Amino acid sequence: MVQSMTAFARCEETAGGCDIGWELRAVNHRFLDLQFRLPDELRSLEHPLREAAADRLKRGKLMCVLDISQNGSSEALELNRPLLLQLLATLERVRRDAPEAHVSNPMDLLRWPGMLQQGAISPAGPVADATKVLFQTALEALVGARRTEGEALRGLIAKRLDEIEAIVAECRRLAIGAADGLRDRLQARLAELKADVAADRLAQEVALLAQKADVAEELDRLGIHLQEARTRLNGPGPHGRRLDFLAQELMREANTLAAKSVLPAAARVAVDLKVAIDQIREQVQNLE
């Protein structure tokens, strides 16, 4: 199934006297980049959460933010006594070495990171268990949003491929009459210059110009790339990298086609082709 790399999901729950909220934001990225923001008390959960996310996602930058706050029924705050004793011992050494140093205010000690802990939060408590379950729920919601957007993108890309195929067919039609068009242009130019050129010499010049303007190989390669793009789009994922590569190859052939287009009608069609391919490139860069 086609998946986009951009999505958003937020899930909330109350457990263990705490309000828990997960916010997941995914954007485009060449590889899988997972970033977590967790309270220090639950930092040990990051590794299993990373594994869970890596099992469901292949590409994209994912920012996972966990918000936990006590509600009215939460337990009282607990003092991190070992940390307090370490800080006090450090302050005592500072006072001995620098008697003129400012004596710390007790409130400054309480503001120290990790000094006050919620009694309900522990890596093996009910809040931690609910956090892991809620993350899976948020991850499922994120994957669902990515799939929904991916299916919409698949329809848009398929439509663009139809447009490109129609333009390629028009290029083939114009290529058939390219030699006659070149002969007419050359004859008109000679008439303006009032120059008299032998028929065999005119035929040689037309053949030479037609050979330089021959785009049969480019049109064949465009057809092959379009067929491969459809196969990839309808096949199993991930799709983004392969389709992005095919879009680059399509643009390469389109540039060569435009460079060889000597007739005004062919040049206009080549420009339309490049515009349609560029629109596809913008879309496939959002796919996983």
Task: Kindly summarize this structure in a few lines.
The protein is an alpha+beta fold and 288 residues long. It has helices at residues 46-56, 81-97, 106-110, 126-176, 178-193, 199-212, 216-234, 240-260, 264-284, and strands spanning 7-15, 18-27, 32-37, 60-70, 77-79, 116-118. A hairpin with a 2-residue loop joins strand 1 and strand 2.
Protein architecture, described:
- By secondary structure, the chain is α+β, with helices and mostly antiparallel strands.
- The chain is about 60% helix and about 15% strand.
- It has helices spanning about 45-55, 80-95, 105-110, 125-175, 180-195, 200-210, 215-235, 240-260, 265-285; strands at about 5-15, 20-25, 30-35, 60-70, 75-80, 115-120.
- The strands form 2 sheets. Strands 1-2-4-3 form a 4-stranded mixed beta sheet, with helices on one face.
- Helix 1 links the parallel strand 3 and strand 4 (about 60-70).
- Helix 1 packs parallel to helix 4 and helix 8 runs antiparallel to helix 9.
List the helices and strands and how they pair.
Blueprint (H helix, E strand, L loop, with lengths): L6 E9 L2 E10 L4 E6 L8 H11 L3 E11 L6 E3 L1 H17 L8 H5 L5 E3 L7 H51 L1 H16 L5 H14 L3 H19 L5 H21 L3 H21 L4
Parallel strand pairs: 3-4
Antiparallel strand pairs: 1-2, 2-4, 5-6
